[in-house]
Amino acid sequence: MKFSFLSKPKKHFPPASEFGFIELRGGESRVVIVPSLGGKVTELFMGGRQWLWTSDVIPFARGIDGTSYVEAGDSGGFDECFPTVGACRVPGWVRAFGGVELPDHGELWCQEPAMEVRTAPDGQRVILTWKGVRFPYRLQRSVRVAPNGDVHMGYAAINDGDERLPFLWSSHPLFPLTPHTRLILPEGARLRVFARHDIELGEFRSEHRWPFVRGSGKVFDFVAPFGVAKRFACKLFVDMPEGRATIQEGEVELSATFDPREVTHVGLWINKRGWTPFRREDPYLNFAFEPCIGAPDTLSDALGDWKSAAWIEPGHERRWSVTWSARRTSAGRGGDGVGAGTASS
Fold first, then answer.
1. Total count of domains within the chain
2. Angle ∠(220,261,45) on CA atoms, nearest 5
3. What are phi and psi of 258, to 5 degrees?
4. Residue 112 and residue 65: Cα distance in Å, rounded?
5. Which domain holds residue 277?
6. Residues whose CB falls within 8 Å of the CB of residue 24, separated by 6 or more in sequence, listed in order
7. How high is the pLDDT of residue 331?
8. How many other CB atoms sit within 10 Å of the CB of residue 23?
């Protein structure tokens, strides 16, 4: 089977601009944010290119709490997930919150957060604040585009309740997957498998070392994810011993930098025509590159066997930040796009 990498004609969807937006500029970078779409970033133009993937199946639309994110909200761009990523029930032993049902993709995507705009010598800034529905929290995200073009995202999670509050946080930027995509993460870092479709990557929670995953007698190299298999999808989590993760596309790279004591993991959702929630639509060709706190996608698993959930004490807050920067590079990491132990498409 051969794939065409030219996008098919998009359906007539309303542009994000119809929902109202704010644009931040600095250096050669441009960031477009749509508060009414859950604070979604719809454009991340850095290093001379627009990085984000946009769906040609799901239109931009205001989210409704209780609806399916993958069927109604997975329109592309850059979202935030809190206090969980995957739908789950909080374990009964968690005081005050045991038994609470948390929705897929968390609670933020279906809200319109409060917005504050500031301009200062260090760059334009937008501060968005969401308020918890099932948990008593506030989450703030500050986005600032610096004069040199770097995009600084600062976060604060505040516990407004009387009990300790468990959470996961994940950024959720989606990118187009191409034969030129390279993922650069700390070599030898612990890698764990959370989900897989049409590919054998070992058991749930099986452990490997970046960038290699063993399964069915093969060794797959995820530096070049397009070449891993003809058709597949998977979710992987990499523990971050250092605070830098990079995407390379040809001669341009996009890096996320952070304090690994604060932002502990990077989640990788890679979809090479391997998964879609719709029976009559083609599976997607994209990937998510997600600096995050805790693993895997469900808070229940993070509180259980994975033992990686974060906590906030009553009346306290937890802060972290991620800086996105782009640069041109003469060459990406080598390779022909075909991972070890695989067959070419």
1. 1
2. 65
3. -165, 170
4. 11
5. 18-328
6. 30, 31, 32, 33, 123, 124, 125, 126, 143, 144, 145
7. 55
8. 14
* CATH code of the domain covering residue 170: 2.70.98.10
Residue 100, φ and ψ in degrees, nearest 5: -70, 135
**Rounded percentage of the chain residues whose pLDDT exceeds 90:** 84
Indicate if the alpha-carbon torsion angle 320, 325, 331, 332 is positive or negative: positive
> Residue 325: which residues within 8 A CB-CB, separation 6 or more?
46, 149, 150, 151, 254, 255, 257
62-86 pLDDT, tens digit each: 999 989 999 999 999 999 999 999 9
Residue 2 pLDDT greater than 70, yes or no: no
- Give 242's contacts (C-beta < 8 A, 6+ positions apart): 186, 260
Q: Mind giving me the DSSP string for 7-62?
A: PPPPP----GGGG--EEEEETTEEEEEEGGGTTEEEEEEETTEE---B-SSS----
Bridge pairing between strands 190-197 and 310-312: unpaired
Runs of H (alpha helix) within the chain: 69-72, 299-303
Most distant pair of Cα atoms in the chain: their distance: 57
Strands 101-102 and 88-89: antiparallel
226 phi, psi to nearest 5 deg? -60, -35
